[in-house]
Amino acid sequence: MSKYAEEILAAVTELQRHPTAEQLFMAMKKEHPSIALGTVYKHLNALAEEGLLHRITEPGSPDRYDRTERHDHLICSRCGKIADVRLPDMQGRIEEALGQNILSYDLRIRYICPDCREQEENNTEGGA
């Protein structure tokens, strides 16, 4: 694995904040001023294809990257913020309901995050 790939993998797994390629590029640029955005994309794609990173794709938003450890996500329908949530593993229950084995599942729960909810409440109060 190249040095860039190792650093990108470490940044995604350690930060646990679901960065975009551009966010990783800006972070990498601090230590590697000559790095190109294409290099970051190339390594992210390779790491995702190798199963070392999880790519989170949402319509209308740039891809985000995450560690591969089993967990689920809360996604704000207003601002797009992604938060990790740990729920009991449901693979056995899903397999039982389907009557067949599955390889994996990806649970994404859509909600309105507390910040957006508070902003909405403040806007409602101010307009009344």
Explain what this protein looks like in three dimensions:
This protein has helices at 3-15, 21-31, 37-49, 91-98, 114-127; strands at residues 54-56, 64-66, 72-76, 82-85, 108-111. The protein is an alpha+beta fold and 128 residues long. The strands form 2 sheets. The protein has a 3-stranded mixed β-sheet with strand order 4-3-5, with no helix packed on it. The protein has a two-stranded antiparallel sheet with strand order 1-2. The N and C termini lie far apart (58 Å). The model has no long low-confidence stretch (mean pLDDT 91).
By oligomeric state, this entry counts as: single chain
Give the overall pLDDT as a whole number: 91
Largest sheet: 3 strands, mixed
Query: Helical percent range?
Result: 40-55%
Global geometry: flat
Q: What string gives the helices and strands in order?
A: HHHEEEEHEH
**Gap between N and C termini, in Å?**
58 Å
β-strand amount: 5-15%
Question: Count the strands?
Answer: 5
Strand line-up in the sheet with most strands: 4-3-5
What low-confidence regions span 5 or more consecutive residues with pLDDT below 50? Answer: none
Please count the helical segments. 5
Rounded radius of gyration (Å): 18 Å
Structural class from helices and strands? Answer: alpha+beta
